[in-house]
Amino acid sequence: MRIRRLSALSLTLLGLLAGCGQKDVATDGTEVVRIGSVAPLTGAQSHIGKDNDNGARMAVDEINAAGLSLGGKPVKLELISEDDAADPKTATNVAQKLVDEGVKAVIGHLNSGTTIPASKIYHDAGIPQISPSATAIAYTAQGYNTAYRVMANDAQQGKALGQYAVTRLGAKKVAIIDDRTAYGQGLADEFEKAAAAAGAEVVAREYTNDKATDFTAILTSIKGKSPDLVFFGGMDPQGGPMARQMKRLGLPAKLLGGDGLQNINFLKLAGADADGVVASSPGLPLEAMPGGAQFKQKFEAKYGPIQVYAPYAYDAVQVLVAAMKRADSAEPAKVLAELPKTDYAGVTGPLRFDAKGDTAGGAVTLYQVENGAWVVLETVK
């Protein structure tokens, strides 16, 4: 009898806990709707992760200040920030934690390598996921109706980079290095296809990892093949040291990268050796975004300089909440029915989704470092 009573009590407690995880009510009667925000908040990429988290938080704060009602009741959004440390295993643990805590949606993850494994967990739980920054094609190619992103993918970015390398930079022989992550390898693959199609010869394809900082052996091998250009698929903690080591080894090739390099931290890490480096970033330049100037003023007054993805994290929250308003509910199934209908005028530009959950018609902008600052070269649409 005692065992049965304890079992019944345990089940009752579990039921109460589950109910609290799904729906909370504040002391003033306002319903609390939890939204997850996941990015690397510690480690070498924390500067970008905190940028994402702050962009999402600013949107949540503004929405709460303006007031939100769903189903005829007042609602307060609560952003639950989690750190996946840019690690795929940690990302899946964090994703399950958020599901267990009853979040209604997730903004994130930052990296493709964390976004993709986490996306299955969100899909299985029926929870909407909008990434502000994961660009790997594989993320939305899985067929999950829960997976969305608000910036151009690697097919768009890699094509722009490959064509630019040949037609604008005049590269005839290119060497490629990637960090073996879903993002770095995926972008390098797309760059290779586009550069080869444009007429360049790929003289080397080398690999490193997203923890390395010494590329002397790889660059020495590449130097012997006399490329005009070195493309790196990876992030700034590796790209900065790579730029320095290319100069130290006397490798005259131009360094080209994607959005993993196009941020202010790369400039700090590469120092004077950053000058001349070219990198792309999905979307319009901040100053050309419809709401860019106002966003910059508000964000930097509160959080400091924008790294790169904060406007997209802000827009991801706004797109999500716009779907909640159309559904008149925060229930995931109802929100998922509305997300494909998105037609939102965001800070970053007009946002609509194709059948896969990719941003329709995303632009890609090329930048070059001049005198220690990123300068716009051109935008490809």
From TrEMBL:
Keyword Transmembrane helix on entry: no
Cited Gene3D superfamilies: 3.40.50.2300
Alphabetized UniProt keyword annotations: Amino-acid transport, Signal, Transport
Keyword Acyltransferase: no
Entry superkingdom: Bacteria
Domain Leucine-binding protein: 33-372
GO BP, one annotated term: amino acid transport
UniProt xrefs under InterPro entries: Leu-bd (IPR028081), Leu_Ile_Val-bd (IPR000709), Peripla_BP_I (IPR028082)
One Pfam family recorded for the sequence: Peripla_BP_6
Similarity annotation: Belongs to the leucine-binding protein family.
Protein name: Branched-chain amino acid ABC transporter substrate-binding protein
